[in-house]
Each structure stands twice: as structure tokens, then as C-alpha cells.
Design a protein that fits this description.
This protein is of the alpha+beta class. Helix content is 29%, strand content 11%. It contains 9 helices and 11 strands. It has helices spanning 61-70, 118-127, 174-193, 211-219, 231-242, 287-295, 322-333, 340-363, 376-384; strands spanning 16-17, 79-83, 90-95, 100-105, 138-142, 152-156, 160-161, 251-253, 262-264, 272-275, 282-284. It has a 5-stranded antiparallel sheet with strand order 2-3-4-6-5, covered by helices on one side. The protein has a two-stranded parallel ribbon with strand order 1-7. A two-stranded antiparallel sheet has the order 8-11. The longest helix has 24 residues, at 340-363. It is globular and about 60 Å long. The chain starts with 15 loop residues before the first strand and ends in a 9-residue tail after the last helix.
């Protein structure tokens, strides 16, 4: 049994407010609810009621309790509460009535090769523990399957608010909203300034300057035989590979950095207290994160798509525009971002591919019925059209 631990956080540091809006199912590594977002009020329900639909966790709770006791992370009998309702990595609030921690593990099998690597998630968060990027403190990592049938990690619970459709009340003024948007992009810039080799992540990814090859490989998710993507999916791919920008210097890339995957402090000054859901983290072109943030950031006057519906809070007066976010990022990192529209279009194309893959799974009788909703893929493609001036889409 391989584990590492620290002292558990004091009970008074625990508490959070759930997001103010419905969450997207987590298929295609799009988490439904970030790991730190748990209710602060009321008792933790008994084990028999923890999971969606009232079912018990897919593991022996007694073995987990013994493990946590052995590391000094709990003292009494534990209760669990499932956090989130998606199908990505499973996250549980664990309490013994005094102390609370959060446990994160993969979903039940089948698990695709390389998917749901929680040990990798824990590694990047632990590496960032001394950096100016707020992450939950990793208390223990268990790489074996001996305890609960899968690897898992234990993290401290963070007090904060996950905002989706509304800004936290204490920050819900034009000035407060602007400060939230600026804190969001400032934190992304801080992540990209981290020296990943010095932080122990020199071997965390294999950045490639061949963007065309990366996109062609990604297309195989829905075109495994290489026959070509149909319609607008294929046309947008052709536009992306026709004249891709030179990649920026490699940095730690979160992979899913958006408003719904961070926790905000409940009151002023506006600041992020945790960046969550590191499942897609790697070393690569940091402007992919910038494009993804802008692609999922809702602005007034645009038809919403599936991801901007989840960040509708930023429609309110005071939030920075996408251009202002990009300019602030450039100033904070010293990185020019003239090709930000290309990166935003790439993010929208990749989301369209992932949602098309999930739609086909539902049509085959598997997967989450959410993805059968009409217009999901088309919403991403429509959002990309204004960015591809002159493209024959």
C-alpha cells in the first residue's frame, strides 16, 4: 500500500456553497460539479443515501474508514456524501462528525486506457502546493486498488463558492463582477507562469509543436477510419489545420479552465480559493487554456451553447469582455495573443467533436441521454463561425 499524508485540516475550515445552476453531465471529461463544491449546511447523510438515486458507493466504506483512521485523517465512524452527479471521477465528502475530507476516485469500469487517472490529478495539485495557484491540499494518495478497488486520493476541503449562473451575493455588483473576471484570468496567468520543470512536472506531458497532427488525432474520436469529418465539423477542422499558429512555450495546461471549475471566496476582495478538476492537465501550449476559457465564457448578445449556459453569471453588467480578458492575460504573462480567435475556434471544435461522440454513443444505446438533446453540437459550431472570417463553412 503506497500512501502519503499530512495533518488533516481543522474542522472550522470546512464549508462551501453549491453552484447556483444545473450542471452538465461529466461525459467527455466535462465534470458536472467540481470536487470542492459541497453543501455547508446540514448533517452529512448516512452512507446508505450517498450516491445518486440513493445507492451505496461502489466500494467497501469500512476499508476506507480504516485507511483514513490509520493516517489520522478521521477518528470516529465515517459517513459519505457523493458530490456531483456526472460520470467522470467520483468525488465524496467524508466526515466523522468533526473532521471532513474529500475523496476522489475513478468511476466503476469499464475505464478507457489512460482515462480517469486520479493519481495524475493528485500529482499536479501537489506540485502546485507551493505555487501562487490555489489548489486543495493533497492529504494522501493511494495508488493501489487494495482499499476501495481503485486508486484514489484524499484532499482537504476548501471553503468557497462555485458560481455558474449567479455571482456570489457579496460580489454581485458591477465592480465585484469585474473583479471576479479579472481574478479568473489572473489565476490562469499565474498557472502558466509556473516553472513546470522546477515544480517537478518536467515529465508530466509531451508537448508537440505539430498542431495539425494533434487535431487530426483528435478527429479520430468520431472518425476512427480516417474517412473525413462530415459537414461543418470537417470544414472547421480544415480551417484550423490550414494555417495554425506557432505554439507558445510549453506550460502547465489545466485543460478545463472555466468559471464552473473554480471556487471563489464568499466575500470581497474577489479571489479564487481553489482551482478544481485537473483531470485533463498536461504540459502543452498554454494558449489552449486561454481559448477554452474564452470559448466557455458567456457574453451578452450571443446565442448560448452548452458550456456558456453553465457560466451565465458572466452575462451580468461589469464582467470583463473576452477581449479584455485576453489583453489582461497578455499583460500578466508577457505573451502576445494575436491568434486568440484561432485557439477559441479550436476549443469550440474540440467541444463539438466530444459532444458528437457522446451523441453517437446515446444513439447506440449507451452513454448519457443528455447528449441526445438537439442542437448541442450545432451550438459550438455556430459560436465558431464569427471567428473564421472567410471560411467556407
Amino acid at each position: 500500500m503506497s500512501a502519503s499524508s499530512e495533518t488533516a485540516p481543522p474542522a472550522e475550515t470546512i464549508g462551501a456553497v453549491p453552484p447556483a445552476g444545473a450542471a452538465l453531465p461529466a461525459g467527455a471529461a466535462l465534470p458536472a460539479l467540481p470536487a470542492g463544491a459541497v453543501p455547508s449546511a446540514g448533517p452529512v447523510p448516512p452512507v446508505e443515501a450517498v450516491a445518486s438515486g440513493g445507492s451505496a458507493p461502489p466500494f467497501d466504506v469500512g476499508r476506507l474508514e480504516a485507511y483514513l483512521r490509520g493516517l489520522g485523517l478521521c477518528r470516529g465512524p465515517i459517513t459519505l456524501r457523493r458530490i456531483g452527479e456526472g460520470h467522470s471521477n467520483l468525488t465524496y465528502l467524508v466526515s466523522d462528525g468533526e473532521c471532513r475530507v474529500v475523496v476522489r476516485r475513478p468511476p466503476p469500469p469499464p475505464i478507457p486506457p489512460g482515462g480517469h487517472d486520479v493519481v495524475r490529478e493528485a500529482r499536479v495539485q501537489r506540485a502546485l502546493g507551493d505555487e501562487p495557484v490555489p489548489v486543495p491540499r493533497i492529504l494522501a494518495v493511494e495508488e493501489s486498488t487494495a482499499v476501495i478497488g481503485a486508486p484514489f486520493y484524499v484532499m482537504a476541503h476548501v471553503a468557497g463558492i462555485v458560481a455558474t449562473t449567479r455571482t456570489p451575493p457579496a460580489l454581485d455588483t458591477p465592480a465585484g463582477r469585474r473583479a471576479v473576471g479579472e481574478a479568473l484570468v489572473d489565476t490562469l496567468a499565474a498557472l502558466h507562469r509556473v516553472d513546470h520543470a522546477a515544480a517537478g512536472l518536467g515529465d508530466f506531458g509531451r508537448p508537440s509543436g505539430d498542431v495539425t497532427r494533434h487535431l487530426r488525432r483528435f478527429a479520430r474520436i468520431v472518425d476512427p477510419d480516417g474517412h473525413g469529418l462530415p459537414g461543418e465539423l470537417g470544414a472547421l477542422l480544415d480551417w484550423l489545420v490550414d494555417d495554425p499558429p506557432a505554439p507558445a512555450a510549453p506550460a502547465i495546461v489545466h485543460g478545463d479552465f472555466r468559471l464552473g471549475n473554480v471556487m471563489l471566496a464568499a466575500g470581497p476582495p474577489a479571489r479564487l480559493v481553489a482551482v478544481l478538476d485537473w483531470e485533463l492537465a498536461t504540459i502543452g501550449d498554454p494558449l489552449r487554456d486561454v481559448g477554452y476559457l474564452l470559448a466557455t465564457y458567456a457574453v451578452p448578445g450571443e446565442p448560448p451553447h452548452a458550456l456558456t449556459e453553465m457560466s451565465a453569471a458572466t452575462l451580468a453588467d461589469g464582467y470583463p469582455s473576452r477581449a479584455e480578458l485576453a489583453a489582461r492575460y497578455a499583460a500578466a504573462t508577457g505573451t502576445e495573443v494575436p491568434d486568440v480567435d484561432w485557439y477559441t475556434a479550436m476549443a469550440l471544435w474540440k467541444l463539438a467533436v466530444l459532444f458528437e461522440y457522446q451523441r453517437r454513443r446515446v444513439a447506440d444505446g449507451i452513454g448519457d441521454a443528455y447528449y441526445s438533446r438537439p442542437g448541442l453540437v450545432e451550438g459550438f459550431l455556430a459560436a465558431a463561425r464569427p471567428l473564421t472570417t472567410g471560411a467556407n463553412l
